[in-house]
Amino acid sequence: DDHAKALDYLVKSGDKARAAFANPEAIAFYREAAQFAAQLQQTEMAAMIAEGLGDVLFHVGESEEALTCYQHALTCCGEATRLAGLHRRIAAVYEKRGDYEQALLACARGLELLPADQQNSLEMARLLIERSRIYRQQGQNENAARDGEKGLAIVDDSTHYTEIAQAHNTLGLIYRVSEPARAIRHLEQGLAILERTGNEYEAAKSYNNLAILYYQTDLSRSIAYFERTLATMKRFGNVGEEATSYMNLGTVHYAQGNYAQAIDYYQRSLTMCKQLRHNPGIADCHINLGEAYRAQGDLTQAIAHLEEGLRIAQDIGAQDAEAECHRQLAECYLEIKAPERALVACEKALVYVRSMGNRQEEAAIYRVVGKAYTEMGNSPEALANLEHSITLLRELEQEFDLGATLCDYARILKETGKLAAARAALAEALALFEKLDLPQEQERARAALSEIPPA
Predict the structure, then answer these.
(1) Which stretches within 279-318 are classed as H helix?
(2) pLDDT tens digits for range 184-211
(3) pTM summary value
(4) In 317-378, where does DSSP find H-type helix?
(5) Within a 10 A sphere around the Cβ of 127, how many other Cβ atoms?
(6) Per residue in 385-406, pLDDT tens?
(7) Rounded to an integer, what distance in angstroms lies between the CA atom of residue 154 and that of residue 146?
(8) Shortest CA distance to 284 belongs to which of 98, 40, 35?
(9) Helix (H, G, I), strand (E, B) or coil at 308
(10) How far is Cα 358 from Cα 354, in angstroms, rounded to an integer?
(11) Measured between alpha carbons, how far is 97 from 143 in angstroms, rounded to an integer?
């Protein structure tokens, strides 16, 4: 019957359960503690409870209720640094929803609240790292890199290992397209810290990001990292990260030609993302489903998914997703013998990727442009665009995409009578597919080689 003592123990029990990722228990303790805090009119304690409950709810995918908790905590808390932290948490909720403008506003409020003596504080670093993630989602890589580097500089020589690793992880994702070697260095530095400190949950995120990078060069390593991430996120009950893991596993199976398995993983991810109201994830799932259905030859399903993905991407201002939708739609238009429509879609995509500096996507678009000109019988333009794509892919060390583009390039070389160059391109593509252990792609490359008469 000692409510004050009961409140203290309930909060401690909630904190302990949260730290152990015992999410249902943590939620129950915090809810009961909130009732006692209200009865005792303990406003500061109520703020702490609402913050803790919000963190757990966000972790398990209940973002709407988490946002309510954070907003309630704002009304109970008076200390500037803690208020800034609450705005950072609110930004993370909006980021998950794909409401990037609201997320950036929340970060700005948090940064404004920090007093002068907190400008190089842990909370400043956390806010900068969060804002860096939001900018990256928007395709604003220059702003993302600036904030990520500033956040890392604040904590780099400290013992705030989680934040150091998060900064490295974020920077790894930012640089993965433009500077893959630099991206891997950041991700491996972050992972080394997390493994040394035993932070298995954050380490799983690093495995996921490394898997994305190895997707182009080592599919076996990529799938092993993704599966490790999925198992960890299931165990910790993080539905959002579980959805991401399913989607990423789908991309590897797609690359291996297992289209039915890829579609199954994408559908699982889509169902979870819809439950979470995670609009960026929903858009990505539709894009990936469109790609997989196109590979299966079901263009009706492919176009429907891509158009839905484009609609959502435009609603939330995700320019990288918009660019990919236009490029994937262009691929579909080529399948229905509409190369002019494909070129129009590619021009729309190029506007976005040039503004973002996304050279990997730019290379993919130039490949489609080359294929469109091939269909139109314009060999010089086809060769020029494919050569531009190949140059970019070599620089970026994107081996899977390079192999596919070399096959397209060889086709035009053969048609224009440049047989030796066609054989060389196909031989290089075959070597890449053998390295990546892609039997279906190897078979296609060998078949194409067999159709070229010997010198």
Answers:
(1) 279-296, 299-316
(2) 899 999 999 999 999 888 899 889 888 8
(3) 0.66
(4) 319-335, 339-356, 359-375
(5) 26
(6) 999 999 999 998 889 899 999 9
(7) 13
(8) 98
(9) helix
(10) 7
(11) 21
